[in-house]
Design goal:
297 residues; alpha/beta; D-Maltodextrin-Binding Protein, domain 2; five-stranded mixed β-sheet
Length: 297
């Protein structure tokens, strides 16, 4: 069995469900892989850990991946496939119920996984769109391991964040948050979720990478084709969530998953454009230099 460490920038959202299902069903074992996992809170921190060679394959969003390529913390980093959360239809801007207009965020605290993670960058885009200065008009609270919890927003520790399912469903149904819009309203054509690896791993272990991606995709397809079994799996993984929360989250996510792993290359270019426009990266990378799709062949 090949021993591999798979890295996560956070745990708890529906981005984990294909992976959890693949583990539970033995799909990685079927591919001859003995898989362990490691969570490094924040896409920026995960990219740095992968750059140091501590983790072979990981899941992160395009913004921290591009910034890590730009600042050199992820040397040889390559996008090898899309994650199921491939675009910003899966990412939601939410606020506390008393926030009626985004202009009211001025002077308030915004919750982010980390300032270098997806929400740290994409929130800047949303704030600019609302006519606010993301560097000076708001304060940021890095949530790190508490990102998946809705307690901070319910308590008023922060008044806005970007979130995913099932945290959105839980927050809406509890009255802790109000959905403003999917982030795709601000940026409709954007390759978001990535699976990434270093070029040396791809070169030396191309067949292993293919097996990893095949097992993960098999988990994604299994989840979408068997929603009742997926619900049971999620309930077991997240026992604090009610059936109503899980049902709502599954209804809104499974139909729009990317289960093929195919990257939207024009959407990748859009992500680069956005990161340049908000100053999160300083130079434009060539897509062909940071994408390697041999694992999908």
């Amino acid at each position: 069995m090949d021993q591999i460490t798979w890295g996560f920038a956070n745990r708890g959202g529906h981005h984990d469900w294909p992976f959890v299902m693949a583990m539970a069903k033995g799909f990685f074992a079927d591919e001859g892989i003995d898989l362990t996992t490691r969570t490094v809170a924040g896409g920026d921190a995960l990219a740095a850990a992968m750059g140091r060679g501590e983790i072979q394959i990981g899941r992160m969003g395009t913004p921290p991946f591009l910034q890590a390529i730009d600042n050199g913390s992820f040397p040889g980093g390559k996008a090898v496939a899309s994650h199921v959360m491939h675009n910003l239809d899966h990412f939601f801007l939410v606020v506390r119920p008393e926030i009626a207009d985004l202009a009211q965020l001025k002077g308030k605290t915004i919750g982010v996984l980390s300032v270098g993670s997806c929400d740290g960058h994409l929130m800047k885009m949303e704030l600019r769109r609302a006519g606010l200065d993301p560097e000076n008009d708001v304060n940021y609270l890095e949530l790190r391991e508490n990102y998946e919890s809705i307690d901070g927003m319910a308590a008023g520790d922060y008044v806005a964040k970007l979130t995913t399912e099932p945290m959105l469903a839980a927050g809406e149904l509890s009255g802790a948050m109000r959905l403003v819009e999917p982030v795709s309203v601000a940026e409709p054509h954007f390759q978001w979720g990535l699976l990434v690896a270093r070029d040396s791993f791809i070169e030396e272990h191309t067949d292993l990478l293919k097996r990893l991606l095949r097992a993960h995709a098999r988990g994604a397809v299994y989840c979408r084709e068997r929603p009742d079994e997926t619900k049971l799996m999620v309930k077991q993984e997240m026992p604090d969530y009610s059936d109503q929360v899980i049902d709502l989250a599954l209804t809104r996510t499974l139909p729009i998953w990317n289960v093929t792993g195919e990257l939207d290359l024009p959407g990748f270019e859009s992500a680069i454009d956005m990161m340049l426009s908000i100053g999160s990266i300083q130079k434009r990378p060539a897509v062909e230099d940071i994408v390697d799709l041999r694992g999908l062949e």
